[in-house]
Structure to design on (241 residues):
């Protein structure tokens, strides 16, 4: 059996969903004083302030839901999901994302692919008694390369350990992502595994830089993609063998 890991923002969907929800804000924009509070590595905290502002402006659950449901999937992603639906018994599929649970569930249910995923790891989110959309951090960690609220390497490592205890061993691991926070877990992949970085995005650039600086240090096979249909074709070849 193969383990297939997906990122969400700019991987499954063709946008960053945190930016997308601004479409539900008055004038579809954020005031400058909110935007100026952003600090590198503390995006989750920043989004908490954005959501509090939107709540103050009367943006409701239904408004957010509509935005999430309408975010387009990345090129070729429906093809890849269709392929995975047909070969579901061969792949265990999980999603690790620094977005939020509510948004991911809305989008995947609307697209009809929610049931493909065995597990979704993302920041907890929901609506409080005022009807405000709230967001929390996923966990704390000691990784110096990742945002304060989430290290995907830690999530993946713990997941593999948990599955090993349940006597599930994966023949190969496949990782589909785009961002710097997808590079961190992909460094732990072995030479049997495959990293699928989205072409021209940070994860792709970082694998190229690592290969230049330390040839062979990045062990997984790197298969960049522009359309997820390319990922489907690659996996098709793998299962033929």
């Amino acid at each position: 059996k193969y383990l297939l890991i997906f990122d969400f923002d700019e991987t499954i969907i063709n946008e960053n969903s945190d930016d997308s929800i601004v479409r539900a804000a008055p004038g579809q924009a954020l005031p400058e004083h909110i935007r100026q509070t952003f600090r590198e590595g503390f995006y989750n905290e920043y989004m908490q302030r954005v959501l509090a502002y939107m709540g103050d402006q009367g943006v409701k659950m239904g408004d957010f839901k509509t935005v999430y449901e309408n975010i387009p999937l990345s090129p070729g992603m429906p093809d890849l999901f269709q392929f995975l639906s047909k070969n579901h018994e061969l792949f265990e599929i999980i999603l690790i994302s620094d977005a939020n649970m509510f948004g991911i569930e809305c989008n995947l249910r609307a697209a009809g692919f929610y049931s493909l995923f065995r597990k979704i790891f993302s920041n907890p989110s929901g609506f409080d008694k005022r009807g405000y959309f709230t967001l929390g951090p996923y966990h704390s960690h000691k990784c110096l390369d990742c945002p304060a609220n989430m290290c995907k390497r830690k999530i993946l490592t713990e997941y593999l350990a948990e599955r090993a205890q349940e006597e599930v061993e994966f023949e190969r691991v496949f990782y589909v992502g785009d961002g710097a926070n997808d590079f961190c877990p992909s460094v732990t992949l072995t030479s049997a595994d495959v990293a699928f970085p989205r072409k021209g995005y940070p994860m792709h650039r970082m694998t190229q830089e690592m290969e230049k600086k330390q040839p062979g240090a990045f062990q997984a096979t790197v298969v960049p993609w522009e359309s997820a249909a390319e990922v489907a074709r690659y996996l098709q070849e793998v299962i033929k063998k």
Remarks:
- The first helix runs from residue 17 to 20.
- The chain has two domains: 2-14+73-240, 18-69.
- The chain has a mean pLDDT of 96.
- The beta strands are 2-6, 91-100, 119-123, 125-127, 133-135, 172-177, 194-197, 221-222.
